Amino acid sequence: MTDKDTIRQRTLEAAHLQLIEGNPLDADQMAMFEMFDREGWSQERQRDYILERAKAAAALHAAE
């Protein structure tokens, strides 16, 4: 199994655990994590990206 296969398997397992916990990942979230894997983003870059998306979503929600 290659590193990419291992990472893909871990992503699928994490998505399954989210489903079990009652908080399934939606298609956009899965696409985001697949992008991280495909493009080899560092943990720090992933975290920054997610935080920026959360801030933008909060600002949009506050403006409504």
N-to-C span: 48 Å
The tally of beta strands, per DSSP, is: 0
Give the overall average pLDDT. Answer: 92
Largest sheet, in brief, is: none
Q: Proportion of β residues?
A: under 5%
Helix-strand pattern: HHH
Number of helices: 3
The chain-level structural class is mainly alpha
Low-confidence stretches: none
Oligomeric grouping of the chains: single chain
**Envelope shape:** flat
Number of domains: 1
Q: Mind sketching the topology for me?
A:
Layout: H1 3-20, H2 27-39, H3 43-63
Helix pairs in contact: 1-2
Structure commentary:
It is a single chain. This protein has helices at residues 3-20, 27-39, 43-63. The radius of gyration is 14 Å and the shape is flat. The protein has one domain. The relative contact order is 0.09. The chain has 3 helices and no strands. It has 64 residues and is mainly α. Helix 1 packs antiparallel against helix 2 (27-39). The model has no long low-confidence stretch (mean pLDDT 92).
